[in-house]
Design a protein that fits this description.
The structure is a homodimer.
Chain A: E1 5-9, H1 14-26, E2 31-34, H2 45-50, E3 59-62, E4 69-72, H3 74-82, H4 92-123, H5 130-154, H6 167-176, H7 190-200
Helix pairs in contact in A: 1-3, 1-6, 4-5, 4-6, 5-7
């Protein structure tokens, strides 16, 4: 990779951490530029015009100056970094199965496990809107169901897809390992807990903070 | 592709349609097995044990008998079918950018545009729970924002990623072209409307119904 890699991030975000962890496991140098999402720093006119019209981080910037390219969506940025590496299986089914768990992460896991962490740990329950408070129970149930499904899957193999660590593990590790900050107890998911330790033992692993 | 391909689907689901459209554009034979999600047919013990523990369709089944493999998540199934075809760009950035829009589809578009269609067109507003009714306005705003972002992006190019049709177009077409069933007007999005016509004009295109 000859072009510079810059991650536009908020370090408290698990979605940003996925990209840092992918780069670390691959030994890729990655600069970071930090924004405070609580202060709306990703919704400024400059950010919307130059970095991401969707007003969200993470964004992976590839190259600098007029030829810089910008890649939003955490799992797409991980894919870019890991392209051609062992973190993406070559086998056709295993590759699609890895993506299956990455889409599961964004659809079934993140909107529940990560959102409750954001609401309860960073925003604070007292500051939630009535609409948000009304969704806590549904998100709790759906988040537990996502964790249960992962635990059941991990009772039959060491990794989420294929026979070794892939981007599916990185994507799901990010918010699972801090799920307790969203009020999710992990004691009921023993296979999942052993998998968390497997990820943390990977050569090159970096913690979230 | 020598193994048989069987799609477990509900034909009213845009997520299922994505897979049928991908197969049609590629000229791949695809059998279908139909379930009625309104009757809970994807939550039976048999379905959970044999097809998808997550209790959802679509599921792409590859092969039959004891060696059959099952792939949930619509966008992952499309990836499997299109692997090695022109529907997935080879260029590293374009490929990641395609996945970027597919993750956007599952995170920003589907939970708003598709969910309102399901609630208002199939379940019926009078049958929604108080929790669901309370989310309509937020989903309306977020769905319009997703459509606006697509329209703005399509004002600068014919396709969502790269220079030709890719899986990103198929994934986003599925629920966008029936967004009016969820109460979304498309007249405000002229570039998006022209793109809908471009997709419908593709050789091999099949309609949803």
């Amino acid at each position: 990779m000859t072009e510079s890699l810059i991650l536009h991030e908020d370090p408290r975000s698990g979605n940003c951490y996925k990209i840092r962890l992918t780069a670390a496991l691959l030994g890729l140098p990655l600069e970071t530029l930090q924004y405070d999402i609580m202060k709306g720093e990703t919704r400024t006119p400059e950010f919307l015009a130059n970095i991401n019209r969707n007003g969200r981080i993470p964004v992976l910037q590839i190259g600098e100056g007029p030829n810089a390219r910008f890649l939003p969506e955490s799992n797409a940025a991980c894919w870019y970094l890991a392209s051609g590496s062992a973190l993406i299986p070559e086998d056709r089914f295993a590759q699609a199965d890895m993506l299956r768990w990455m889409f599961f992460e964004q659809y079934n896991h993140e909107p529940n496990v990560a959102t409750l962490r954001f609401w309860l740990h960073f925003v604070g329950e007292a500051n939630l809107s009535i609409q948000q408070s009304g969704q806590i129970m549904a998100k709790r149930v759906a988040g537990c169901e996502a964790l249960r499904l992962m635990d059941e899957h991990l009772s039959r193999g060491d990794w989420m897809a294929g026979n070794s660590v892939t981007l599916a593990d990185i994507a799901l590790f990010a918010y699972t390992h801090v799920a307790e900050e969203g009020g999710f107890g992990l004691d009921d998911y023993p296979s999942l807990c052993r998998w968390l330790e497997r990820v943390q033992a990977l050569p090159g692993f970096v913690p979230m903070d």
